[in-house]
Amino acid sequence: MNKFITLSLAALAMSACATTPVPSGDWTLAEIDGQAQAATVMQSLTFDSANQRVSGTGGCNRFMGGYTMEGATVTFGGLATTRKACLDRDVTNAEAKYLGILSENSFELTTVAGQLILTSASNRLVFNQ
Fold first, then answer.
1. At 13, which helix (H) or strand (E)?
2. How many Å apart are CA 36 and CA 28, to the nearest integer?
3. pTM of the entire structure?
4. Sign of CA dihedral 85, 86, 87, 93
5. Minimal CA–CA distance to 81: which of 102, 57, 101, 98?
6. Taking a C-beta distance cutoff of 8 angstroms, is the pair 43, 37 a contact?
7. Which of 2, 15, 59, 124 gives 20 to 30 Å between its CA and that of 111?
8. In the CATH scheme, what architecture does the domain 19-128 have?
9. What is the pLDDT of residue 9?
10. Which H/E stretch holds residue 12?
11. Domain limits of the chain?
12. CA distance 114 to 64
């Protein structure tokens, strides 16, 4: 019996250290901090786990960069954006907020019922696939 408990605890400890799988596919931002995103603002996120790269749209511009995963924590680094002029101030503001949040935080990454959720100490982003 002790051998079974020891093996079970060892398996549990090893699974706790495992890296959370990075969700594949394109994800569309649905809400920031509980506030639904306007349907007119298309913001997205796509992971390329083979190359540890991330890309997406902020509203007007595309962004791309790297990321690191440690356990269930994802950190985005060195995000670069295109520099198209955006004529809609609401879209410009939404893009600045979204890209600012991605650039300044590490997130706990979870997937639940077709949603990707990124939670930091100060923000929560919810994406739909």
1. helix 2-17
2. 12
3. 0.82
4. negative
5. 57
6. yes
7. 59
8. Beta Barrel (2.40)
9. 41
10. helix 2-17
11. 19-128
12. 23
